Batch of 3 targets.
Target 1
Amino acid sequence: RRWSSTGRAPPLASAGCDRQGGPVPPTLAALLRHPPRCTATRRASHRAHGCHTDHVTCRIATVQMEAVPGDVDANVARITHLVHDAAAGGADLVLFPEAAVTGYDDRAFAGPLPDLTASGWRSPVQDAVDRTGVTAVVNSALERDGCRALSDVIFTPGREPLAAYDKQHLHDSERAVFTPGDHGASFVLNGLRFALSVCYDA
C-alpha cells in the first residue's frame, strides 16, 4: 500500500496496522494536517528580516484508490468522499489515478462509457468540488464525439467540468479501444501552472 502528499506523513504508529501487521494508510485529512512549508505568518517573518521572496503554496492530495471495474456509481461515491477528505486536510488540488471513474479493466473499456453530457456521474463530483472549494483532476475512460479516450477531467468550483487532456501514449491493449490525444494541456491554480499527463505520458 502506498500513499503520498505534499506534507510530511505522520509517524507510522499513528496510522495503525491491519491484521497482517502491515501499515494501514491514514486518511488524506490526516496526511494533509501538517502545515505547509511557507505560511502567511512565515512570509511576514521573512519580510521582517529583509527577505522579500514570496513563496507560493499549493497543497496537493494524490489519491491511490481501487476502483470497481465497471461500477461508475460506486467509484464516483468513493471519489466524492475522497474530495471531502482531502479538503478537510487543507488540500487545494486533488489528483485521481487513471480510469478512476470506470476502473482500469478491458471489459469495462469495451462496454458503455460515461460522457460529459450525462450529469449522473459528474454531478456528485462537481457538487463535492463546489462545496469544498478544491480543484480535482479525475481521470476516466470517456466516450466523446464518437471516440473513446482516457481523459483527465478538471473539476473546478463554480465551473463546468472540462475534459482537458487525453492520454497520448497508449499501450498495446489500449490502442484497440482508445484514440490517443493530440495535444498537451495545463492549468493554473494558486499562481502555479500544472501540466497534465496520464500514466506512460509522464
Target 2
Amino acid sequence: VIGGLQPNPTYGYDTPNPGVADHRKMREGTPSEAETKQNDYAMLHAEWDFGGSTLRYVGGWGTKDLANVQDYDHSARDSYLTEGGAFVSAVDVATIAVDQTHYSNELNWFSNGGGSLDWIFGLYHYDDRNSQDISLSRPLQPELTALDGVGAYYNSLSEIHIKSYAAFSQLDWHLTDNLTLQTGARYPYDEKEAQDTFGRLV
C-alpha cells in the first residue's frame, strides 16, 4: 500500500514501532527536508487628494517556491526479500514542490466628507496561480532506476488558477446629525480553472 508500513513482520522486520509508546515518534530511513527557495512579497499604497475627493490605489504581489522531501515508507529499513526471494526496495521517498504567485489591485475613489453626502466607488482585482508537483520514488529498486535514474513510480501535477473581479459603491446620506441613510452595491465575478495530471507505473 502506498504510504504504508510495507516491510512488516511478515518479511522479517520485527523492529519495534516507536509510535506505539509515543505517538509523536516515528522511525525513518530518509531524512525529511524542507526548503523555501523563494518567498517574496511587495505592496504599493498611493493616494491622490483632489480637495473634495481622494483617489486611492492599494496593490500587492507575492510569490513562494517550496520543496519538501519526506520518508514515505515510514520505516528505517532499506530492503527486504519476498518469500520467493525477490528483492524489494523498502525506501519510498516523496518529493513535493509547491509554487504560488498571486497579486491584487484595488482602486477607490471616495469623498473627503464635510457634506451631507459621503460616497465611495471602487474596483477590485485578484489573481492567484498555484501548482503542486508530487513525485514518489524508490531509489534502491533497480527495475525503476533503470528507467529514469531516480526510481520514480508515481508523478502528479495539480494546478489551479483563480481570478476575481468586483465593482462596488456606497452612498451615505446624512439626513440629520443622528440619522444616516446608507445604500450600497457590489458586483463580483469569479473564475476558477483547475487541472490534474498524473502517471503511475504498475
Target 3
Amino acid sequence: LMIKENLPVYLAAWSVYFWVRSKNWRVSLAGIGISVLWYLATMKLIIPYFSHIPAGSYQYFDFPELGQTPEEAIRTIVVNPIYTANVFLHPAIKQETLAIMSAGFGWTWLLAPWSWVAAFPMLFEQFLYNLPSHWNLLFHYAAAITAPMVLGTLDGLGWLTDQVSRFKTLWGGNREYFLRWFAIFLVISTLGLSVTHRLFLT
C-alpha cells in the first residue's frame, strides 16, 4: 500500500474478487476497510504533508474529461456511465489495445465476470488517464492488468470445460481433448496477434 497512492483502490477491488472466490467475507471486508482508510490518509494527509501541497489539490490527477478531483471523477462515472464508456473506448487505439490484450488470453477471461471487478480500476486508470502513452502496449502501464486476466482465464477455462463435459456429443465429452485443441488455438491466436501488432506498429 505504501508503494503508490493508487494501490488501495486495487486492493479494494481484489478484496471483492477474493470475497466471491473464497467466501471469506471477514478477510475481504478487512481488505476493503484498510484500503479505504489508507487511501484517505494518503490523499488527505500524507501526500499533502510531504509535498507541501494543500489537501484537496491533486497535482498528478489528470482526468480532465471526468473532473478535477477523485470525487468529481467518481460522480461522473456513476451519474454518466455512457459518457464515461465513450471516453474509455476512444480514441480507437484504446479499443485496439484492449482487444490485443484480451485476445492474447483467448478472450476466456471475459467468461469470468468477477475478474472484471479486479481489472476495472487498472483499466479505468489506464484508458481514462489523459496521457496517450497509457493507451498502448509500448510501455509498462498495461502490465498489472494481466494479473486479473490470467485468473479470469483460469476461471473461464474451468467454466468452458464444465460446459463441455455436460454435452457428451461435443468433443466426446473429453475435457483433455478440448483443452488440448484450445491450447493450440491460444498459441496460434497469440502468435498471429503478435505479428499483426508488430506490423501495425511499423
